[in-house]
Amino acid sequence: MSLVLDLLRGSLRIDLIPSWIGTYVVTSFLMA
Prior knowledge:
Number of helices: 2
Number of strands: 0
Radius of gyration: 9 Å
Helix content: over 70%
Number of domains: 1
Structural class: mainly alpha
Oligomer: single chain
Order of helices and strands: HH
Largest sheet: none
Strand content: under 5%
Distance between the termini: 16 Å
C-alpha cells in the first residue's frame, strides 16, 4: 500500500496529507 501512497503523493504532490490518512482511506475502500 505504501507504494500506491508514494505514487499518489508523487503525482499529486500533496505533502500536506499525512500517510495515515491515505492508509485509512485505502483500508476503508478495501473493507467496503
